[in-house]
Amino acid sequence: MILQIVIGGGMLLGVSGLRPRRKSALMRKRALSMHRKSDLLPRSVREFDRRYQALFQTSLDPIFGAARQLQLEELQIEVGEEEKGINRRLGLAVANVGLAALGSAYLPALLFVSAAGAVYVSRPLLQDVHAALVVERRLTYSSVAALSLVSTLAAGYFVTTNLIVLLIILTKKIIYRTENYSRKSISEIFQRQNAAPVWVLIDGVEVQTSLDGVEVGDIVVVGAGQTIPIDGVVVSGFAAIDQHTLTGEAQPAHKGVGEAVFASTLVLRGRIRIQVSKTGQETLSARILQIMERTSGYHLSFESKGRNFADRAALPVLAAAALAWPTVGIGGAVAVLSGGFGSILKLSAPLSMLNFLNIASRHGVLIKDGRSLEVLDQIDTIVFDKTGTLTLVQPRVAEIHAWDELSEDELLRLMASAEQRQSHPIARALLAEAARRELTLLPLAGIDCEVGYGMRADTAEGVLRVGSEQFLRLEGVAIPAEVVVRQALCHDQGHSLVMLAVGDRFAGAVELAPRLRPEARRIVAALKERNIALYILSGDQERPTRVIGEALGIEHCYCNVLPQAKARVIEELQRAGRRVCFVGDGINDAIALKQAQVSVSLSGAATVAVDSAQIVLMDQTLNHLPLLIDISRDLAKNLNTTFTLSVVPGTLIIGGVFVLHFGIPAAMALYSAGLMASLANVMAPLLNAQHGQAENQSARPDSAPCGPLDPPALGCSNSRDRHGE
Question: Residues with Cβ < 8 Å from 335, sequence gap 6 or more?
Fold first, then answer.
């Protein structure tokens, strides 16, 4: 009897109606219904449920992977209503097993209570069967599972039935832990981004209000360090604005009167008054989010090999059982059903997936949707965003052009002194180089950032003016013709020139260049070794993008691509037969992240990018991208072996029933052997990873040394570059 319970539970563990969790209208309605019902419960019941869910999250969820659980918590990924429902059913299933055991031993009336409880807990399985048969008009393995449960319960095996139900819910929990996690809906992301107060100019007075109170035509005031909350036109002031998360351009955009600015961009310097042209859902950033909501996302339509196979096996299994009943007998029919042709795969495939997700987590890779790891094995193309993904946001000092008999160190010292209270990327680059050269900065008597194209700083050396060519000209400073020529050359290379004047005299300029991520060359080489085609997709100008591509050896570059068009580029590659993984980090990448078959973002990137991506590189580098490809390929090999181990026992059981008149004991023996072999295969990678983790970490190189042809402006690998310091 005990053997029958254990083996029977194992048989049905994998056939538990685990259909793909498509976000269908039916499932969304079910989740919404659960949420509304929970709101109607008494406060004491809701408090008990809150504590119960907290116990699950802190004590039981880590059993399914402690490292992955910590990463989910780090990104504040919340438990959804569907998973909370699974947790509740697990508790009820445990209680039902206890009732059935007590009923069998002492009080038979409890058996019927446990039977009712088993039916109640199994409602989602029965609903899935109804949805498949009646709504979708297709036969799935859920029907086989439901038939087995009902038959077992009707035969009076109350303890066995409740144990099977418990194992079914546990499997559903495992499946859920391998599938998609989403922290917030897209609309909630937008609301969070625009929750800050807004300053509106009313009758010459700046009044604080909420974004909901801002209307088209109002004048909004935005200063340095603040995010622009609306789309509009500058009517007063100047500002340097960081637009890279929206447009992909690395260098700040200088905006003056009459020029357009956009929501979700950051004012680095200056103070501007903006006449509102679009608010709320009409802004460019909001439209990007709306497009994201309409973008289906490949992973939502993807079904795993195991599920497809098991569902296709449902009709042959039912037909074989129906044929065995009159020809072999009821025992043969039950043996065919109990053999669960394909059910081993439905058990071992999610367990294998969960193990590989935990392996990835131990290497600092959070995979929110396990199906994306399975798809990743089929990827033949990786498309990179440029700014913030292949390059670091903070540029580096490439060259110092001193003028008027100043030394390079003195020019840098003056410029860094003027910028020492600023925190934007250009200031950080100047200060980092000054610190590297151990230069002593001048104390500031005062600073003035009102003009936006640059800044004035009062020091003992006089008034320092730091900024663009246009800023210095507005300040009455003459710019030498050689410097103008040099600036044109810089722009052609994707570099920028920051100029300095001491008093009213031009003193020199510092050339800033984008910095490659220190690991970028090594990662590109490793991906090429794995026969992956590589592309760069950027909103930046053509020449800066080509310079990065040439430095990395990536020939295919798409430049000047607007956020809305990035998904179309991905779609074009897909129509050409390519399976695409997109790696990005900004709002401008969010649509492309959803369009690609697999999407990867870096932890610490824009919130929308991290929320949209299926895979997050938690160490904020690209170091583990080749390892991720290897893990996906190892998963594919493991699943193929598991597929073989699952097909053989089912085939032998069905053939044995008709040829050798196998009964239930023989079917259980064969199923048990196949199940144990499959589980051994599934657990082997995790055990090997645990054994070799220390060796892998010690052998992993931090970065690749610079070669003789590496452009010095793009930087070499060093310990500080890893964090952009």
Answer: 324, 653, 657, 662, 663, 664, 666, 667
- Phi, then psi, of 237 in degrees rounded to 5: 90, 175
Contact 466, 499 (CB under 8 A): yes
Estimate to the nearest angstrom the gap between the alpha carbon of 175 and the chain centroid. Answer: 18
CB 406 within 8 A of CB 391: no
Q: How far is CA 235 from CA 255, 275, 712, in A?
A: 10, 6, 42
What pLDDT shows up at residue 296? 43
Tell me the one-letter amino acid at 654: I
pLDDT digits (tens, 9 = 90+) for 23-34: 444 444 454 455
Half-sphere exposure of 699 (CA within 13 A, CB side): 5
Q: Give the containing element (helix H, strand E) for 505.
A: strand 505-516
Look at the chain and count its residues: 725
Q: Are strands 381-385 and 533-537 parallel, antiparallel or unpaired?
A: parallel
Residues 64-78: tens digit of each pLDDT: 666 666 666 665 566
Cα dist. 422→250, 270, 441, 446, 723 in Å? 18, 12, 14, 13, 19
β-pairing, 462-467 vs 454-459, is antiparallel
Residue 472 is encoded by which pair of tokens? 């210095």
> Long-range contact list for 429-434, CB < 8 A, 24+ apart?
429/394, 429/395, 429/396, 429/397, 429/512, 430/397, 430/498, 430/510, 432/394, 432/396, 432/397, 432/720, 432/725, 433/396, 433/397
pLDDT tens digits along 111-145: 889 888 888 888 887 787 888 888 878 887 777 77
Structure pTM? Answer: 0.64
Which tokens sit at 612? 């949209």
Whether 310 has a pLDDT exceeding 60, the answer reads yes
Contacts of 230 (CB under 8 A, 6+ apart): 198, 211, 214, 220, 263, 274, 276, 277, 278, 279, 283
Percent of the chain residues topping a pLDDT of 70: 73
The number of beta carbons lying within 10 Å of the beta carbon of residue 202 is 11
Element (H, E) at 590: helix 590-595
| Nearest C-alpha neighbor of 458 from the set 476, 446, 471, 466 | 446
Mean pLDDT of 657-681: 78
Helices (H), 179-209: 186-193
> Is the CB of residue 592 less than 8 Å from the CB of residue 537?
yes
Model confidence at 281, in pLDDT bands (50, 70, 90)? low
Cα 516 to Cα 106: distance, rounded to the nearest angstrom: 73
Query: Beta-carbon neighbour count of residue 706 at 10 Å?
Result: 16
- Decide: helix, strand or coil at residue 220: strand
Asked whether the predicted pLDDT for residue 96 surpasses 80, the reply is yes
Give the integer Cα–Cα distance in Å for 156 and 174.
29
d(Cα 441, Cα 681) in Å, to the nearest integer? 63
Per-residue burial over 275-298, b if 16 or more Cβ lie within 10 Å, else e, is: bbebbeeebbbbebbbbbeebebb
In Å, how far are 125, 157, 462 from 82, measured between CA atoms?
Answer: 14, 29, 66
